[in-house]
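In the current project phase, work has continued on tokenised descriptions of protein folds. One protein thus recorded appears below exactly as we store it.

——
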Amino acid sequence: MASDSNLAFRAQCVRVGSEPDSSVGDFEPAFAAAPVRIDETYRTPFHIHAQMEPHASLARWEGDRVVVHCSTQFIESARKRVANTLTIPQANVRIVSRYVGGGFGGKLPIYADVILGALAARELGRPVKTVLTRQQMFHLTTHRSSTVQRVRLGAERDGVLSAIAHELWSHGTPRHPFCEPAAVATRTLYAGAHRMTRHRSVALDLPAADSCRGPGEAVGLLALESAMDELAHRLELDPIELRRRNEPPQDPEKQVPFSTRQLLGCMDEGARRFGWERRDARPGQVREGRWRIGLGMSAASRGNLLSESHCRVVLMLDGTLQVRMSMTDIGTGSYTVLSQIAAEMLGLPLERVRMELGDSDFPPSLGSGGSVGAARAGSALYDACEKLRNLLAQAAGIDPALAPVRQSRPRRVPCAGPRRHSGNRCDLFAGGRRQNQSAQNQRPGRTRHQRRRRRARQCSVQCLRRADPRLPADA
């Protein structure tokens, strides 16, 4: 892929919230005036996902509504694409993807198996299963484009950067505007008064490129960090020290403070653990027996992309917490992580949390992708559990701020109205005197323990319903 091809065009889409090009100061004259300059070109090859689980779908129609079981990372996106392609309302599309056997960006879109399966099922009037072969996955699904990247660094003799430029060429098509966002991390990683990043696409007759296993940073940081190592070698400066001298006090392009930034601490801890003090800049100088040991380092950065997510939590009569959202699990542990959040927030054992994910009938969540699924869905779940805690506390007549939740059965839980739970017994307060109601609501065939538990549950539900009459009948 020639970087100077006449087919190159300005990328239309790099990443949500990021423009294809950026410029701060005046790079070209600053780079020309720098006493130390690095100008290198790096090339990376195509990357194919080839995840263990192939793309497959099972489609059936229920009247005028299609139900598709498929392997997708983004439930809501799949629902919109099916609805748009079949020209039917989104309400008439249900996407189910309980478990995904590997995704890493390869299952962000949906492919021919989903659409053709839905069309065939409607035509035949019966369920249709469609599975892509392993060979078809290399041609009919997306991949990471090969890239050509030019990185230029201008620095003073002490290693302080004055000019940074990162330009990228990758293949794409005007109809599929994705461009590998390789230069995005360069905009924030190091300080430098004069900066420029640029993304260009080259139209090639190839399958569409899209997100693949750390899109942007995986290949972009390879180029930037290789150039930084070249600069450290040129200056005869320790690579960690070079990065320390170029640590930005705030975002160098947006001029806003970082919410958190721990790069220096991370490098220092890594150096301590890996025995960085043994490093010799000359090749082949560190040995362990017959082995020659190389010591190197690289910084890395990943954007924290957040978006709106929704969640529904219901505390059932048997003490089980039901959690529903259209989040997915691509093998990265969404079920476990979200269950841990819910259990901790409501003081429940992990086995009392029933996590239900991967269904477009559930409250919408963006899904798993971009290494931010847990942050998105986890934030929605945290907020929902906090609201449920407040609801329970208010129903019990307790200030929510003074109602800690622990993983144990409460011995005494105050309840709204003149009642109080003591263990599994519901007591009534009248005129300041406690009158035991153990003789009430007794039925033949029930043990005393069963009667106590039933009365406690009934009292809890009554109090909750006074606080929120919208609760379902089984909650």
